[in-house]
Design goal:
binds NADP nicotinamide-adenine-dinucleotide phosphate, single chain, 10 strands, alpha/beta, TIM Barrel, two-stranded antiparallel ribbon
Length: 276
């Protein structure tokens, strides 16, 4: 499995499974747990979760899926902005560790920018890292200006910025992604299928047909072809978990990449970062 180096020198896999909307109720819990277990069986090397998802329910499912497995995947979780004070971040991380049944989170992110001073959150991140409770830290939903502010506080250690980025949402191409590439900070693309909306696009479907892959695989393969980009599609359906993993085997020629650029052009100017 390919990986990306974070500024700390640690590596993060380029592909994982997302867990938003999981852990919200009993009815789907069994299917969600099975989907995560199946992803691990297939070799998904990373899971993205957050204290927000199902109010801790998604982290609990991940914890249950991890119990007893030999080689654990890279775990990403996130702190709510309203918890992201100096002491609140540490307490939130400890709760997440308990739900995940882990001693260390590999990458711990501020979910989005809230009212708490960023300096406080970073201070907590440093303390958590020193205590070995997290290996790396980072942010999410940060536009370029926010990243510049983070860079003044982070001692060069922000591990990622997880943002909305996919073929139909290419805003980061203009300045955020180049800014991050210059500093070797991997961009973690969330909602890589635009939550399923992208998959009805006629050009995407046509090109996928020509390549003998599915529209979802092509959308994910495009992200994986972008240097310094990693992604975390979510599915709680066994077949789709497998289908999405298959994107890692889809190779895109320069001609296909050019056709995708024509169908989904990069923005010509600055666009404010979109958020879901
Ligand atoms: N940091 C943030 O603010 C933020 C925001 C959004 C998302 N995220 C993270 O990024 C992850 C992925 O984003 P997302 O869940 O918003 O959207 P997504 O991965 O783009 O799409 C998920 C949706 O597409 C469906 N789907 C998945 N694979 C499919 C396939 N092969 N064919 C057809 N439909 C498919 C899923 O349905 P089924 O489950 O029924 O298969 C689900 O409804 C999240 O789960 C979360 O971990 C982070």
């Amino acid at each position: 499995m390919r990986s990306c180096k974070m500024p700390s020198g640690n590596e993060m896999p380029v592909f994982g499974i997302g867990t938003w909307r999981m852990g919200e109720g009993h009815a789907k819990r069994g299917a969600e747990l099975e989907a995560i277990k199946y992803a691990l069986e297939l070799g998904y090397p990373m899971i993205d979760t957050a204290e927000m998802y199902g109010d801790g329910g998604a982290e609990e499912i991940v914890g249950e899926a991890l119990a007893g497995i030999r080689e654990r995947p890279f775990i990403v979780s996130k702190v709510y902005p309203h918890n992201a004070t100096r002491s609140g971040t540490i307490a939130a991380c400890e709760r997440s560790l308990e739900r995940l049944r882990l001693e260390r989170i590999d990458l711990y992110l501020l979910h989005w920018r809230g009212g708490v001073r960023l300096a406080e959150t970073y201070e907590a991140f440093f303390r958590l890292r020193e205590a070995g409770k997290i290996a790396d830290f980072g942010v999410s939903n940060f536009d370029t200006g926010d990243m510049e502010e983070a860079a003044r506080l982070d001692k060069g250690l922000t591990g990622t910025n997880q943002v909305l980025y996919c073929l139909s949402r290419r805003g980061p191409d203009h300045d955020l992604l180049p800014w991050m590439r210059k500093r070797s900070i991997p961009l973690m693309a969330y909602s890589p299928l635009d939550q399923g909306r992208l998959l009805t696009n006629a050009t995407l479907k046509k090109l996928a047909g020509e390549l003998r892959c599915t529209a979802a695989q092509l959308a994910l393969a495009w992200l994986l072809a972008q240097p310094g980009v990693v992604t975390i599609p979510k599915s709680m359906t066994r077949e789709r978990v497998k289908e999405n993993f298959g994107a890692l085997d889809v190779k895109l020629s320069a001609d296909i990449l050019a056709e995708l650029d024509r169908a989904f052009p990069a923005p010509k100017g600055k666009q404010s970062l979109e958020m879901l």
